[in-house]
Sequence to fold (148 residues):
Amino acid sequence: MIRRISAMLIAAASLFSAGVAMAAPAQAYTCTPDNACLYSDSDFTGFVRDDYHSQSSWESINYDGAFNILLYWGENNPRNVTSIDNWDTDTRISVYYNSQWLGPCFKIAAYGYVSNMSYITLSSGKNANDVMASHLFGDNCSGTVYNF
Fold:
């Protein structure tokens, strides 16, 4: 009888500790060195894309591990990229309003970031949040360089 009660207590303790472990908050994502991480929400939250390559169209690529959730769904969609973390220590990232690296743009400093693109106004007068469509590693864009 004592053995049975002890076994039940041990099993209950195991389930409780497993439940606590499952309820723990998720770890913050750390971007890969020399990559750019693009997030669907401000402050580097939501879906993430850890990318080493320039992308001429965000309409054709998914966030990592998110099947059929694209980086760009059309203008002003809340799933579109909202924050970017540049982990490349010596290269800026040019971010463009249109695909194929065209249109109004801004740059993110080498090893810099933009935690919320809603703070950026493009040369066209539009707000950059949820409207950008491509990025290019390099200093190609004539827009402002940001790091905030």
In short: The chain has one helix and eight strands. The beta strands are 36-41, 45-51, 83-86, 93-98, 102-108, 113-114, 134-137, 145-146. Residues 92 and 109 are 5 Å apart (CA to CA). The two ends are 64 Å apart (CA to CA).
